[in-house]
Amino acid sequence: MSGESKAIVAQGLSKRFQSFLAVDNLDLEIAKGEVVGFIGPNGAGKSTTLRMLCGLLRPSSGKAHVAGYDVEKDPEAVREHIGYMSQKFSLYNDLTVRENLRFFGGIYRVPKKEFAGRMNFAVSMAGLEGREDMLVHTLAGGWKQRLALGCAILHRPPILFLDEPTSGVEPEARRRFWDLIHDLASDGVTILVSTHYMDEAEYCNRIALINRGRLVAMGSPGELRLRDLGGKLVEIACSPLGAAVNALAGSVIEAAIFGDRLHAVLDPNGPDGEEIRKLLEEKGMNVGAIRMVSPSLEDVFVRLVSGGKEERVLS
Amino acid sequence: MAYKETLQIRRDPRSLAIALLMPLMQMLMLGYGVSLDIKHVPLCLYDQENSQNSRLLADDFVSSKWFSVSRVLTSEEGIRDAMDRGECVAALVIPSNFSRRLAMTKRASVQAIFDATDVNTTNIALGYAQGIMARTSTLPSTVDFEPGTWFNETLDSRNFIIPGVIAVILALVGAQLTSLTISREWERGTMEQLISTPISASEVLVGKLIPYVAIGFINAGFCLVSAVYWFGVPFRGSMGTLFVTTSLFIVVVLGIGYLISVRVRSQLGASQIALLVTMLPTTLLSGYTFPIDQMPQAIQAISLVVYPRYFVTILRAIFLKGSGLDDLWMPVSGLAIYAIVIVWLASTAFRKRLD
Ligand SMILES: Nc1ncnc2c1ncn2[C@@H]1O[C@H](COP(=O)(O)OP(=O)(O)O)[C@@H](O)[C@H]1O
Ligand SMILES: [Mg+2]
Q1: Which chain B residues touch A14 with a CB distance below 8 Å?
Q2: Cα–Cα distance measured from residue B171 to residue A14, given in angstroms and rounded to the nearest whole number
Q3: Which listed CATH number (2.60.40.10, 3.10.180.10, 3.90.550.10, 3.40.1710.10) goes with B41-150?
């Protein structure tokens, strides 16, 4: 049996929708108790991968084992060992908090005598004490999300798949949600969580960066930050930003909008900071300060994603 | 599962009201059929007595706008001839002892004979005739009305139609309701969550159907009560037989709705397909209005696989003939085979996969 000590193993996992390759030859190894962030832009193939790992979609090729069980041959065994929060909000809106929990407790076959305790745990985890009899559609987004997580862990699964659990939730609620994820991880739960918020990458033990169905990089946030961008990174205050990105194309290794600034990776053999200023001013743009910055994870992602180059997974 | 489903049904009182009221409305609509438009049903009069009383009674028919007297006959054979030639659809026979019985017992009867070839018209004409007889005030005493059919003697107009209507309603409503149960979960996005759990396909099937079986029985009860107390259809059979056969039928229709729901992921699509597969065969081929033995051979053969046909036959026999399960073993086993096949298909249809 593969993956005795590994919670999740995927080898050459691919999914093809008609002619479209949504997930391309993905290799993944996740140890027990890890929190792994699955990060990539919309349409990168995050959901598709998670669905294959839950046994909801059949891989077109490749293999995956979750909790030691083959997702294609033994999806039922996989389902007994996982909790899954799908991307689309997945509770019953017309039922109350308590009724949703009771329903999921029932289908997860939570033993009767343990049920009350687990339900209390889920309710307090979601911060829903006193709201047990409210209809779910009257709850705010953050609460719904935490309740959905509560439902997904009623049966104490050793592995959790969370598909963009924090999308559309206000920042404060997002932080609370990540606290919950870490609490679960400290109890030994393995968690694979997808997100398109780059800033959430910092919360993960490791990050798998996926773009156009391919795993572009994998490693801890620290490791990824050390990635060589190929040149010095400068932050340029200028306007208009969009036109500046176009103007720099060809002169620098990489230029991307970063909030209200521009981040550019300078080509060691190309123009330096002052030459860039001239180049932009010649095109009639307002240029403010240009200063060197140390790369953030986001810079690395931008570089990896737009570079389109396939890079080796960090060891 | 069943508990959750019941809660959800209760949380949606509008749909529940529709589910329970729709059958009643359909019962009234279908029960009365298209009758409101038909007037001047051609009637032959055969007044064997030709007394003042009998003419008074005949006048009630003559003066009503529902009937127009096309011929006055002088012999029993004349009725058959006139009907054969299509000159009348109904014939009123007033017996020669009409006045004498009225005088002696304050009670007399007349006979109405219908050409039941056109079941619809016959049904309507019977309703009119009963209406006229009920209102007739020109006669001093009660006149019983003995409807009898001449052709297609198994057909008995409204009594014949109503049990069929019950089958049609149960089929339509049942399949409609369940066709939504699974597709609703797909549309709301809860299905993806559901299939990621260890729930089994049969748990889903049973959980989804139990509440609807209950609704199906409530509907069947409504239909039965309105058939007997509103439409006055005699109920001669046993409740036990009715219960067993109705259960089978409900299982079949709900199972079909469920199968559709599993296959079609949009609610709209599912309910339309459900309408198509229940409405057409049920109304056209079940024999509820169009007698099966008058259909072309090929269509008769097709109607053998139309499940409501068995139930229509069964209901008619239970209502009108008081048949028990032993008399009905043929259609009942037809229905039972259907139920088994459908349940088998339904229990394997649910796939816990997105592709
Ligand atoms: N059932 C499907 N049929 C066809 N294409 C699909 C299907 N599901 C997803 N895709 C496509 O696969 C790509 C990856 O989708 P997805 O895994 O949902 O991305 P992500 O979750 O990273 O945003 C998208 O381009 C999407 O359009
Ligand atoms: Mg997604």
Answers
A1: none
A2: 45
A3: 3.40.1710.10
Of B7, B189, B194, the CB nearest to A95: B7
- Interface touch A56/B193, C-beta < 8 Å: no
pLDDT in tens, chain A (315 residues): 444 578 999 999 999 998 899 999 999 999 999 999 999 888 899 999 999 999 999 999 999 999 999 999 999 999 999 999 998 878 898 889 999 998 998 888 888 888 899 999 899 888 888 888 999 889 888 888 889 999 999 999 999 999 998 887 888 888 888 998 999 999 999 999 998 888 888 899 999 999 889 998 888 888 887 777 778 888 898 888 888 888 888 888 888 888 888 888 888 888 888 888 888 888 888 888 888 888 777 777 877 776 544 333 332
Tokens encoding B328: 């009905």
**Quick one: A95 and A45 in the same domain?**
yes
Out of B12, B192, B194, the one facing A94 most closely (by C-beta) is: B12
Rounded to whole angstroms, how far apart are CA atoms A311 and A307? 10
Indicate whether this complex's ipTM tops 0.85: no
Instruction: State the Cα–Cα distance between residues B126 and B31, nearest whole angstrom.
Output: 13
Selection from B299, B292, B162, B308 nearest residue B233 by Cα = B162
Does A95 contact B197 at a Cβ distance shorter than 8 Å? no
